TrEMBL record:
Top-rank taxon, per record: Eukaryota
Protein name, entry field: DDE_Tnp_IS1595 domain-containing protein
Lineage, opening ranks: Eukaryota, Metazoa, Ecdysozoa, Nematoda, Chromadorea
Length: 186
């Protein structure tokens, strides 16, 4: 079984928006500081708004902390996204995610798709080589089941997820954080 940090040890991350922000900054996933994109001046972090504001009086432009990261254009608070990701890594059933997180089935489905896309984007051919024989067999089986489970794109993402999980089975949580840090977003 994968090594995971305990839920209690991460309670400040999963149940506290400011704790989640600090955790993501410490992990290098979100920036701690930023230069103003308009004037190059220093900015200040406004934690309640999750944005950087230029300190120059003649500029005062604001920039979202989430910009250019996995978290950009996501509506859920950072702590809820991390909790959902943690539970997804543990293969928590969808109905349990809906009940425990208090989210709609559409929201949970969307975020599970985002997580699959994230690990798919962070995967490479090495991950597939590690599981090559089993993946080929499963590809043959999933082609038959494609009508039940969605589009070819969905199936490809599920295959990449499977390969990613197998390649990182020693520590999925660290691999998930690495994917959040390394996958570029525009």
């Amino acid at each position: 079984m994968s090594r995971f940090p305990g839920l209690i040890s991460l309670q400040n991350v999963f149940f506290n928006e400011e704790g989640a922000l600090e955790f993501l900054q410490d992990e290098g996933i979100l920036p701690k500081e930023k230069e103003c994109e308009a004037c190059g001046g220093p900015t200040i972090l406004l934690k309640p708004k999750l944005m950087f504001r230029c300190r120059k009086k003649n500029c005062r432009k604001g920039y979202a902390v989430r910009k250019g990261t996995f978290f950009a254009n996501k509506c859920l608070p950072l702590d809820e996204i991390l909790l959902l990701g943690y539970l997804w890594l543990l293969k928590t059933p969808v109905t349990t995610l809906i009940i425990q997180c208090g989210l709609s089935s559409a929201t949970v489905d969307s975020y599970l798709g985002y997580f699959r896309q994230l690990v798919s984007d962070s995967s490479n051919e090495e991950n597939l080589e590690i599981v090559d024989n089993r993946t080929v067999e499963e590809n043959n089986e999933t082609e038959v089941d494609k009508r039940k489970h969605g589009t070819k794109k969905d199936m490809d993402e599920r295959q990449w997820e499977l390969a990613w999980r197998r390649a990182n089975k020693k520590n999925l949580w660290s691999a998930f954080l690495k994917a959040l840090r390394d996958v570029p977003y525009t």
